[in-house]
# Entry
Amino acid sequence: MIHLAYCLGLRPFEVARITLDDISFQKRELLVKTRKGNNPMTLPVPDHTIKSIAAYLIKVRPKNKYRTLFLTLCTPHRPISPKVVGYCIGKCMRQANLPSTPYWLRHTYAQNLIESGTPIFEIKEMMGHDKIESTKNYLHIHIKMMRKVLFDEEL
# Structure
C-alpha cells in the first residue's frame, strides 16, 4: 500500500479500489479506474513496486473470490476500506517516526516529479486533478532548484 501511495501518488481510496485486473505485470502498469474527478489513468509502476505487489500476492494475500488487490487478513476475508488503507499507511509512518498523514506521500510524489523536471501539467494529469490550482497546492518551493535555475548556482 505504501509503495502505491508513495511511488504513484495514490489516495487511500484509490489504493483500496485496485483490482487484480488493473495490474499489468508484463507492461509494469496500473490502471487506476476509480479516481477523484473520474479521470481513469494508466500509470507506470516502478520495478520495486511491481515486486512488492507480486510478493504480497504470493505470500500474504488470502485466496478467495474477490478481485480486489488488498483484502482483510482476518476471516472472513473481504476488500479493505479506504479508511483501513489510510490507517495502515499512517501506522507505518508513525512507526518510522514520520509525524504526518498518508496524504504526505502524495505531496512527496508531486515534489519528486517537479524536481525531476516533469511539467506541472503532466503532474496534474498523473495526480488526477481537474484543475491546475489543485496541483499547485501539492508543490512547494524548492530553494536549491530555484537558485540553480535563476542564478546558475549550487548550494
Notes: Strands lie at 23-24, 29-32, 41-44. Residues 82-95 form the longest helix (14 residues).
